[in-house]
Design goal:
single chain; about 400 residues; alpha/beta; Leucine-rich repeat, LRR (right-handed beta-alpha superhelix); 3 domains; seven-stranded mixed β-sheet; 14 helices
Length: about 400
């Protein structure tokens, strides 16, 4: 298996380079693919692999086989038994485990599909280059994990009688619109409001129904609504908002200026909006932001990277990683189909028995080669005594 790794690395490098070139036509570099001459980037290429395929069993919530891959200090311990040995992929337990057969009980990942040859090759290349693992990203993740544990039970100050009455009226107003308003959980007064099913009815004026939820509104879904940039000015009055969904709305850069004041915001969905690079500038101060979705927005990869540099603990999803992986898979399949087609063709042009042109539909496999014949009679003669025609095969090419 180890002998195959250089081949896999070469194949994966070609696939990755082609996918990157295709995406470059759009003026955007996909987050995973990089040319061979560029060093593998941990934050954009390796951490996403760990997150999507490894951390369910080897992260902060589960430690299978005493292997943890969310933080460098666990994966590269320096104790002689490291899962990852910088510069030495062949000595790294991680590479051994992800390269095992699918039916091996120790294969990683233990659930779901095996990593592709391209993904294995990328990990090998990263380790061979020294397994660079920046500390900044880990620090942000540890801080985020600490916050996650703290907020498992969302704690908000108790409401006085007047506040409780105003909150009750607001919840009734949301219901009257046809929206949903409910507690996030039984053990908290935090409120979740969803107006996404109202479509155009959920406009700027409809946001007035939220008045009274200022102390307790933590999740707000305005996807597919008619809310405008100006309407988002109301959000400044809801300091405890953690999640905000603005997907498929007309919100643009100006609207994000109002989002900038939401210091507790952890999740922001801007899928299918008009937000561009200028709008991201307003988000740079959201230190608690963990997930930002920008699919089908006007944001470029350069602007997304610039924001990630300021918020290294945030997952900023442009929606292009999946596209790039599909392109790579399609390219690999095309190459495999071509290889199989080539293997299916007889290697010789002339029949070794008669010396006539071969009929590609009449053949026999001999010593790892496909030998073509002009007719079934010649094939039968060859099959009866291949050695008698072996010398002629050289001249029949």
């Amino acid at each position: 298996m180890l002998a195959l790794r250089p081949v896999l690395v070469a194949l994966a490098s070609a696939v990755l380079a082609l996918a990157a070139a295709a995406r470059a036509q759009d003026g955007v570099a996909p987050p995973v693919e990089k040319p061979d001459f560029e060093k593998v980037d941990f934050e954009t290429q390796i951490r996403p692999l760990f997150r999507d395929h490894c951390l369910k069993c080897h992260g902060p919530d589960k430690l299978k086989g005493d292997l943890r891959l969310d933080l460098r200090r666990f994966a590269i311990r320096g104790d002689g038994e490291d899962p990852i040995v910088p510069g030495k992929p062949d000595e790294s337990l991680l590479i051994e485990l992800i390269s095992l057969p699918a039916d091996d009980p120790d294969v990683m990942p233990g659930e779901g599909e095996k990593l592709s040859a391209e993904q294995v090759a990328l990990l090998e290349r990263w380790i061979a280059e020294g397994a660079d693992w920046p500390a900044a990203g880990d620090a942000a993740i540890e801080e985020r994990e600490a916050r996650r544990k703290q907020r498992e039970n969302i704690e908000l100050p108790a409401l006085d009688e007047s506040e409780a009455a105003r909150e009750k009226r607001a919840i009734e107003a949301v219901h009257a619109l046809g929206g949903l308003a409910q507690r996030v959980a039984a053990n908290t007064i935090a409120v979740d409001v969803n107006l996404s099913l109202l479509g155009g009815k959920a406009d700027d004026a409809a946001l007035a129904a939220l008045d009274g939820l200022q102390p307790t509104l933590v999740w707000l879904n305005l996807a597919r609504s008619a809310v405008t940039d100006a309407g988002l000015a109301r959000l400044k009055d809801f300091p405890n908002l953690r999640r905000l969904n603005l997907a498929n709305t007309a919100i643009g850069d100006a609207g994000l200026a109002h989002v900038a004041s939401l210091a507790q915001l952890e999740y922001l969905n801007l899928y299918g909006t008009k937000v561009g690079d200028a709008g991201l500038v307003h988000l740079a101060g959201l230190a608690r932001l963990e997930k930002l979705y920008l699919w089908q927005s006007a944001v470029t990869a350069d602007a997304a990277k610039a924001l990630h540099d300021k918020l290294p603990g945030a997952r900023i999803d442009l929606g292009r990683e999946a596209e790039a992986m599909l392109e790579a898979a399609a390219k690999a399949k095309a190459e495999e189909d071509a290889r199989r087609q080539q293997a299916a063709e007889p290697f010789n042009a002339m029949c070794p028995v008669s010396g006539k042109d071969v009929d590609k539909t009449v053949f026999s496999d001999f010593e790892g080669k496909r030998v073509g014949f002009c007719c079934t009679k010649c094939k039968a003669k060859f099959d009866a005594d291949p050695a008698a025609f072996k010398e002629k095969l050289g001249a029949a090419k």
